[in-house]
Amino acid sequence: MTALAPPRRRRPFRLAVPPVSGVVRPRLVVLCAALVAAVFLLFCRGVAIGDYPLGYADVVRALTGTGDPGTVLVVRELRLPRVLVGLLVGIAFGVSGALYQTMTRNPLASPDMIGLTAGAGTAVVAGVVLGWDGGLGAQGLGLLGALLTALLVYALAWKGGASGYRIILVGIGVSWMCTSATDYLVARGERFEAQAALGWLVGNLNGRTWDQVAHLAVATGVLVPLALGMGRWTRTLQLGDDVAAGLGTPVQPVRLALLLVGVGLIAFGTAAAGPVAFVALAAPQIAQRLAGTAWPPLTASGLTGALVVLGSDLIAREAIPGTELPVGIVTGVIGAPVLLWLLIRANRAGSGG
Length: 353
Description:
The chain is mainly alpha-helical. The protein is 71% helix and 3% strand. The protein has 14 helices and two strands, in the order E-E-H-H-H-H-H-H-H-H-H-H-H-H-H-H. Strands 1-2 form a two-stranded antiparallel ribbon.
């Protein structure tokens, strides 16, 4: 009797129209489906809780516009913007973190670590404290700050090319420079300006509006498909610059393009909810281990980021009765052990310095 062959972990496919080929990974497909279901449940739970509690059926009816008019008003005008911002911020941070970790081939590389979040935060806090935004608004200031920080990091890391290792080292130094500038601005500001800046700097979903949802939805709707479209190039970068160039990948232009896409995602997410700590660092690593891949999968990383932010927001709202903690406090508590674990693993593997 012949033994049964083990199930195939990869299933290649090829389409004639459109001319597309690739590999289907059943485990990754199942993981993404499970993450979508979990995110939907947390999304509904986030809309349901509050001073006027609702059931899941009431939430679904209100979302489709078929429920009680009062319930529809509470859901759509008061609660939905907050939960949508949390969903979109999680996706943006998760995908951005996966891009940087893949681009640099380092699990410690994330917008938190290399200064992009700090740069966006410095620009927004400067607008709040100084009372001038040049007509850009929080989203525009966040984008400008993150973009300038990214270009500075890329320029300082350039030495016949910008390697991932140099980007991380330079980014850590630039991050501390931006953090010091932010601390100075907060100390200089008036009492209420400083309170507003500090509340935003922790990472907060309280009081989100449809304007913030709209800007963030447009940004993620444009940048996430761009990131997914460059997925083939990100995987070749995992093999090293020389191998990637030998396979036909324009290494430096691709790295710059990935840097800019990640900047856009992290900037709009930070402008909408503040620098929510550790999501961009932890979500791709969690998704990679759940998927069993050699690199952080972009779609699963985005869904994991949404799951982390929505779950942390629920904990922040329900942990202490009568008090709503900023979501960044909870993600910091969750993400700090992940960072320590990654540092321990890197040190044991001989790549931690």
